[in-house]
Amino acid sequence: MKIEVDTGETKGIERKFDKLGRIVIPIEFRNALGLKEKDSIEIFLLQDGIFIKKV
Fold first, then answer.
1. In angstroms, rounded to a whole number, what is the distance separating the alpha carbons of residues 1 and 37?
2. pLDDT, tens digit, for every residue of 13-55?
3. Mind listing the domains of the chain with CATH numbers?
4. pLDDT attached to residue 20
5. Which are the contacts of 23, defined by CB distance < 8 A and separation ≥ 6?
6. What are phi and psi of 2, to 5 degrees?
7. Engineering a disulfide at 30: which of 16, 23, 35, 44 sits with its beta carbon 3.0 to 4.6 angstroms away?
8. Alpha carbon of 44 to those of 18, 49, 51: distances in Å?
9. How far, rounded to the nearest angstrom, does the alpha carbon of residue 1 sit from its chain's CA centroid?
10. Which helix (H) or strand (E) segment is 54 a member of?
């Protein structure tokens, strides 16, 4: 399943880091990507943010 995202029109969901540096990925995002508990993801550092990809 390929999901098209127009980031120019998309509003993000704000999350805060906890004291261990963790954030919660919203359930809407996990469902859209088909992410389940214990799935692996890749995290890429970009010039202006991060990119998370399902492995």
1. 19
2. 889 999 999 999 999 889 988 999 999 999 999 998 899 898 8
3. 1-55 (2.10.260.10)
4. 97
5. 15, 16, 17
6. -105, 130
7. 35
8. 20, 9, 5
9. 16
10. strand 49-54
